[in-house]
Structure formats: structure tokens, C-alpha cells
Amino acid sequence: MIGRIRRHFDDLADRQRIAIALARGARMPARRIDLRDPATWEFSAFSQNGEDGVLDVLRSQLIDANRSFIEIGASDGIDNNTAWLAIAEKYGGLMVEGDARKSARARRLLPLAGVGVECLALFVTRAGVPALVQRALFRDPDVCSLDIDGNDCHIADALLAAGLRPKIWVVEYNATFGPERRVSIPYADAFDFTAAHPTQLYYGVSVAGWRAFFAQHGYRFVGVERNGVNAFFADPACFAPAFLDGVRGLDFAENRYQLHKFRQPWPQQFERIAGMPLVEI
């Protein structure tokens, strides 16, 4: 009984959050966009930063779209980078979340989402990636979002090796590593950033690491959003060359959340984890 009551109030709260996000999103077309400057694209409806707006512009420039996405690290289905696609634009795709309770909340919201949106309660490992790719309707979804606070680069590598070729990637980077280090944490199946280091600053991959990784796979760097959390990459075969050639995105931004939490910029943050193992990309 208590569980049902909790779920009832969770659902009411989630529906209110969706209504608020959709109301915010109705103002997205009013922003003044300069196609050369991704800072003007940013807008947040469901996303935590400006990712909804950046993805809106990138998707509008696709030569061909299949209205599909994959999100790994989807949280509760609302606070992520593809909720706008699923709920407002009725895209199909996969939302994958390792926290079973959050994934269950996301599944209860599916009647509000697009046709063919599937929520999987799954902690993604390299070994599990091929089976996950088999669940995808398209091998070239319009958008792939990856935010797992850990093995991100290793999982992206496994996804590409398994035959996935998203047109657009939005990936979390760890600004604590700075703008120049090309590094990632070593792979570990059960990596948990909350237990890996007391600061919780030891996770993921640097933005320069992402740039090196995606360049090896033929992707172009678009830029990072101004809160310093996510970076965007595009497959040049899916866009008119003049568009990507003209983009002048931000190369690096301090993570605003970590800056406020520690009251120190990234060089001092990195000193706190300097003894932890890293791998070069």
C-alpha cells in the first residue's frame, strides 16, 4: 500500500515536471539563432543545461532523419537529453538506465512518449553492448546521448565496434581533467563514481580525450555547452559541409556545478584526484 501511494505521488510530480518542461519548450523557437555560434542554440526544456536547444539545431540540419535516439544514462526519463525528443516530438528509441527505480519511473511515463520508446533497466558494460545494439531499431539513430559518470569512452568505443553509427553524439565530459589532457578512467565493469573517490570528481573522460576519440572515428567536434557538462559531435556525412565548416563552438567550459560545489576551478579540483589512475586516449 505504501509503495502504491509513493508511486502515485511520484507520478503526479513527474506529470507536473513534464507540463512545466513542455511549457518552457514552447519558447524554444523564439530564440535568435546564429548557425555559426552554438551558444545561441542552447535551450533547456527537459535537459539540465542547453542540450535541448543544441540538439534541436543539429537535428534541423540533418540531411536525412529517422526520428530515433538512444540514451544511456537516462535517469528517470525526464531529466535527460532525449525526453524532449520522446515526449514533445514523438521520437522512438531506447532509454537505458542502470538504476532500477529510476528506470521504473521512466517506464510509467511511456504512455506520454513517442511510439516505440523503450526503457531498459540495465547497467551497461562492454560485454553487454552488442545485445543492446541489437535492441535498437536503427543502427544510425539521429541522436545518441551518453552520460554514465564512469566508463563513457569505453562504452562509446564498444557501441561503434558493435555497428552503431549515430549521426549526433552528446556526451558528458569531466572538466576536472582540464582542456588539454587526453585521458579517461581505466575501464572497470562495476565502476561507481560515488565510491571511486571521496570527492566524486574521478569519473569519465576529458573533452580533449573525447575529441581525439571521435576524430579517430570520423566525427567532427561541434562544441561544448556553457555549463561545462556535455560535448557534441556530428557525423559529417549526415550534414551539408558548409554547415559544419561554419560552426565555431566553445572548446571547453568549466563545470559550473563542480565549481560551485568546491569553490575551486578545475586545476585545484584536479589536484584532489591527481594520484588516481588514468589512461591516455
Describe this structure in words.
The protein has about 280 residues and is of the alpha/beta class. It has a single domain (about 1-280), classed as Vaccinia Virus protein VP39 (Rossmann fold, 3-Layer(aba) Sandwich), CATH 3.40.50.150. Helix content is about 35%, strand content about 15%. The protein contains 11 helices and 9 strands. The chain has a 7-stranded mixed beta sheet, with helices on both faces. Strands 6-9 form a two-stranded antiparallel ribbon. The protein is globular and about 45 Å long.
* Spatial strand arrangement across the major sheet: 3-2-1-4-5-8-7
The whole-angstrom Rg is 18 Å
Question: Based on the structure given, which CATH architecture is correct?
Answer: 3-Layer(aba) Sandwich
Domain module tally: 1
Beta-strand content bin = 5-15%
Number of helices, counting only DSSP H or I runs of 4 residues or more:
11
Largest sheet: 7 strands, mixed
Beta strand count: 9
Mean pLDDT: 92
Q: What form results from the Cα inertia axes?
A: globular
Low-pLDDT ranges: none
Name the CATH class: Alpha Beta
The SSE order reads: HHEHEHEHEHEEHHEEHHHE
CATH fold-level label = Rossmann fold
Termini, distance in Å? 51 Å
Secondary structure class reads: alpha/beta
User: For the record, what is the CATH homologous superfamily label?
Assistant: Vaccinia Virus protein VP39
Helical residue percent? 25-40%
